[in-house]
Specification:
Elements lengths: L8 E4 L2 E4 L10 H5 L2 E11 L4 E5 L1 H14 L8 H15 L5 E9 L11 E9 L12 E9 L16 H13 L4 E5 L12 E6 L2 E4 L10 H12 L3 E4 L4 H4 L4 E6 L3 E8 L2 E2 L7 H14 L10 E3 L2
Parallel strand pairs: 7-8, 7-13, 10-11
Antiparallel strand pairs: 1-2, 1-6, 3-4, 3-5, 4-15, 5-6, 9-10, 9-12, 12-13, 13-14
Bound molecules: 4'-deoxy-4'-aminopyridoxal-5'-phosphate.
Amino acid sequence: MKYDVENRRIWLKGEILNVNDAKINVLSPTSQFGLNVFEGIPCYWNDNEHQLYAFRLDDHYNRLLRSAKLLQLDCTYTKEDFTNAFIDVIKANEYDENLSVRQTLFVDGFGSWGSEGPVEMFVAPIPRGRTSAEYNKKGLNCCVTSWRRISDETLSPRIKCGANYINSRVGQREALRNGYDTCLFLNEFGKVSEGPGSCFFMIKDETIITPQLTDSVLESITRDTVIKLAISLGYEVVERSIDRTELYTCDEAFLCGSAMEITPVLSIDKYIVGDGNTGCITKRIHMMYLDVVQGKNEQFKYWLTAIY
Ligand code: PMP
């Protein structure tokens, strides 16, 4: 690797710059109000093929455009622009390791929280080991946070915007304060929604269960991947509302997301999940997921975009 992480190169407004030279206006709506939408796009290095693969790039860009549309951002960048910037900046860093690539559309200029633009973009690859602590753990002890997940009637969790993560933050901070690794949120109706940066699955009697997309969850790409992989393995997958007490009696549970991958949940509110170890079905799906994202599974290789 040519550039250490403190000197990595990022794409900003059409230029590739040293991260320390990439500056934004402190008075911009993104700076003042978190007025931005973004994606965290995972890339995996395949050593045998000497290739870096981006996972479900088109699906990430479709979600980015949906988020921009819902916030009425006046985005002039196209999907082709997204892809070119993404590939150029990874190549500029000569990365040959697993990455999470932050691709953000933000409202620049001197407007306010009501402004539609000017919409600008940055693309910043982050080597995977440098993401948040809870994303790098082997198993998680969770609590149900006392804070509710944002709802479609207030701030839709369907929109992947910076401001929504303040709701994630209060739940995560409460979890850490009380000695847990992370939290699960209930939605406005008291049903299980998701983690602060991940989706939730539980397994009961070999059935894989996850909250519906209308239960206040992000339209997660990993969630969709897990559902498709589980079905291909022959499991029954059910998308339905989950009661809090169901969490305490499930056989297996895991959180999933582009950064978290598939991370087992070992306890919830100190109720042990299963026997307190990673469950068999969770392990099976996790292994398959890792093969798929690295390009080691031919059936799902159509989800990958080769960078080099
Ligand atoms: N829910 C929330 C709140 C998230 O921030 C994330 C991470 N983007 C996810 C779920 C998982 O989404 P994805 O699988 O698309 O990364």
